[in-house]
């Protein structure tokens, strides 16, 4: 009898807590505390502060300004996990040399980590100011890791026959990644007024790959290579990847389209939503380009 009563009380407690977790309404930008005010072109649809991780989690099933941000990268993260398993178990890449699996794995793992950290950031950002700062830093770290994870495998296949050159450019990339991660953990870097600066830092870091690209073109180009279909597939997809990333960053930094119609894009397709979509598409293009680049080295007569 007592046990049944205790269980009923516990069930009632869970029911009350569950109701409280869901009993919140989206609010206007000007009703948010200063630490949650990020984009003043998004007028309505913001989550209020929620000092509960459980409440933050359940909020992913509600419609607000962050819903699409959360789900685009959550689905993207899961998709890359599935792709990774399929790639190494059910395709010709299952039998490639171990070092090549590592190189492809570097990109896949950093993509998964980046998308996972992004999902966590947008889910937990409304918890508290302290948690916001933490997950924001982790989000930047994820971006830094993805940039390095995208460049390093390309360096490996681009300079396939030059170990010293590989090591030199890989060390340069890893150093820039370390600097970027370090800067990400500086509190002031998370401030809203550094929004454009943040985008610029990561853009410059990403475009550091131009240096080894020019090097390869000037000193390591192979005439025969330019007639290989896999090589041109890689070039097309990597070029598309760059275009998508740049476009996404421009939308994010300039807050397009909501700056032209404040309040009209609060729930769907504001700049951060579009940025997430472009990032996901760019990551898919990069994987396609990277596997094509690997095909040239692994499955053709060109080395």
Automatic annotation (TrEMBL):
Its main location: membrane. Pfam families: HlyIII. GO terms for biological process: adiponectin-activated signaling pathway. It is found in: Membrane. It comes from the Eukaryota. Transmembrane segments: none annotated. It is a multi-pass membrane protein. One of its GO terms (molecular function) is metal ion binding. GO terms for cellular component: plasma membrane. Zn(2+) binds at residues 122, 272, 276. Keywords: Membrane, Metal-binding, Receptor, Transmembrane, Transmembrane helix, Zinc. InterPro entries: AdipoR/HlyIII-related. Belongs to the ADIPOR family. PANTHER family: ADIPONECTIN RECEPTOR PROTEIN (PTHR20855:SF52), ADIPOR/PROGESTIN RECEPTOR-RELATED (PTHR20855). This is Adiponectin receptor-like protein 1. The lineage of its organism: Eukaryota, Metazoa, Ecdysozoa, Arthropoda, Chelicerata.
